[in-house]
TrEMBL record, chain A:
Its main location: cytoplasm. It holds the Pfam family P16-Arc. It is found in: Cytoplasm, Cytoskeleton. Belongs to the ARPC5 family. GO terms for biological process: Arp2/3 complex-mediated actin nucleation; regulation of actin filament polymerization. Keywords: Cytoplasm, Cytoskeleton. This is Actin-related protein 2/3 complex subunit 5. Gene3D superfamilies: Actin-related protein 2/3 complex subunit 5 (1.25.40.190). The lineage of its organism: Eukaryota, Metazoa, Echinodermata, Eleutherozoa, Echinozoa. GO terms for cellular component: Arp2/3 protein complex. InterPro entries: ARPC5 (IPR006789), ARPC5_sf (IPR036743). Functions as component of the Arp2/3 complex which is involved in regulation of actin polymerization and together with an activating nucleation-promoting factor (NPF) mediates the formation of branched actin networks. Arp2/3 complex plays a critical role in the control of cell morphogenesis via the modulation of cell polarity development. Signal peptide: none annotated.
Automatic annotation (TrEMBL), chain B:
SUPFAM superfamilies: Arp2/3 complex subunits (SSF69645). The keyword Plastid does not apply. GO terms for biological process: actin filament polymerization; Arp2/3 complex-mediated actin nucleation. It comes from Stichopus japonicus. Keywords: Actin-binding, Cytoplasm, Cytoskeleton. Belongs to the ARPC4 family. The keyword Cytoplasm applies. PANTHER family: ACTIN-RELATED PROTEIN 2_3 COMPLEX SUBUNIT 4, ARP2/3 COMPLEX 20 KD SUBUNIT. This is Actin-related protein 2/3 complex subunit 4. GO terms for cellular component: Arp2/3 protein complex. Functions as actin-binding component of the Arp2/3 complex which is involved in regulation of actin polymerization and together with an activating nucleation-promoting factor (NPF) mediates the formation of branched actin networks. Seems to contact the mother actin filament. One of its GO terms (molecular function) is actin filament binding. Pfam families: ARPC4. InterPro entries: ARPC2/4, ARPC4.
Amino acid sequence: MKLSFTKKNIEALKLILANPPASKEKAVKVTELALRAMSSFKASEVEKGVQSLSKDEVDTLMKFIYKGFETPQDNTCGILLTWHEKAYAVGGVGSILRVLTDRMSI
Amino acid sequence: MAATLRPYLDAVRATLSAAMCIENFSSQNVERHNKPEVEVRSSKELLLKPVIISRSEREKVLIESSINSIRISISIKQVDEIEKILCHKFMRFMMLRADNFFILRRKPVEGYDISFLVTNFHTEQMFKHKLVDFIITFMEEIDKEISEMKLSVNSRARIVAEEFLKKF
């Protein structure tokens, strides 16, 4: 959480993505954190952020993106769409399919 | 807001292409029956996770997929009363003629304005990428048509009011 307040957005995001939430109560908090981390990126930094992630992390990122779409707020939708575009460029159709089929949803 | 249109449509297109992985699957409960599993919702293992893509609080697309069918529900942006009425009438007009559309659903899903139901039979007869293209074009055109209709309603109302008030 402290990492979000410094400019180290990328490390904060990597930390959150490395441990997808296991229990339901934690899931809400972690999603909130993930969305805050993603919103703190500027539109131009998103691409660099996605490039620094591993394959599994891109899949988890996609899950968080779709989770974020479920509760749309005016300021988050635009950046979420940018994240979706860049993550799709890296992950491809497969990353979306893995979100649709995965039993372990966040 | 216009800047989010392209990424929104691209995101919907990508998700639709991913979700349209449907094949023939007969009903597991009733023999010799073939039902769209996304409508019946009888077994969990046949359904994929439903996914929403939203451009704003009012504009979103819900995509529910299953082994032999996919249901796409669209919520159209309506800012004022007149757009609500126009949208409602327009969608109703199309849904009454759903048979000719093939993939249109007669009733929209709760909370959305219009729904499409694509089954494996449709994908066997039509190209998947063309179906996706159709839905994306539909989403683009609807907004344009509704604003066109709103403009024409307003200009007609203005002319009528002018003519009427000339008498006084």
